Request: fold
Amino acid sequence: MAASWLLAIACGNSTRQVPSSFAPQAPLVLPTILFIPDGRLNFGETWESRDFRWIVPIQNVSDATIQIDGFDNSCQCTKIEPKHFVLKPGESRDIEFTIDLLRGRRPETAGHVQEHRDFSLWLSPRITESAGSAIRRPDWYLRGKIRSALQVETLLLDLGEHSERSTVNQMGSLRVLEQSPLMSLEVESNSPQLTATVKRNANDASAFDISIACVPTASVGDFRHEVALIARLPSGERLPPLPLTVARRIVADIEVVPGASIEFGAQPLGSNSQERISLHSRAGRSFDVVSVQVDRAGTLVERIDDTTNRGRSYLVKQAIRDGGI
Reply:
């Protein structure tokens, strides 16, 4: 059988021909089976928001039925619906993207967001073809520009710790700078425990000063109040809300100093150890200690007269005995 030869390879003093069947082949190009119009892969410029929605049509341009079992993408900020569907030859389906365009505003870097920034999302469908033949899994990039109207010091305003017995409002403040000319800035909240006021800064017309006040509560625990910063353009257009979290921690009024537990450390057998503790009210209220109870033998608690402490001071004594304290 005749054979055609493509290459001659020299090795030492001999020359060997290589059949063309062993020569490098061009990579197999698989046909495109899914199509998205280029215009739907760029949403242009939009104001930042937590739930930006964009519709993208996907068309099956192959001659086989294609089953899509979800999408891989490069950002956890994206929700895609529907996740699972079937496309017959020539059929199209609208896919809705819900994207958190605020994802780049981490609380600790919120004050460094540019007025305009680029957005790019890689997207690839997980495909099952009914015919079972080789297919090329497409890669798409959804792009656009995000515009930010506000420059904020932080998106997490921490009001700190407060006593359960406190009777004064817990206060916090925040400065916001406009990056585009604004008619006004408002604060919206559904919490009856929180009030807010907004004023333009007297020395900087591009700055807004926000004051937050939370009413006292007797419930101990961590509290988070969600509010929204609403900017309005000179045209009166209301921009998407910028979320702000107000956090505070309510703690028991009576505080033990230096702490709620005492560590005597390593001590020789037969010795006596002692540690001073003080109790005081975080709210500055007067209180009485009705009794002191101990649950270990060898422990003695003595009251100390201390005119410098508005609360109560005690000396805790512990005798070190065989078998432990």
Summary: Confidence is low (pLDDT under 50) at residues 1-30.
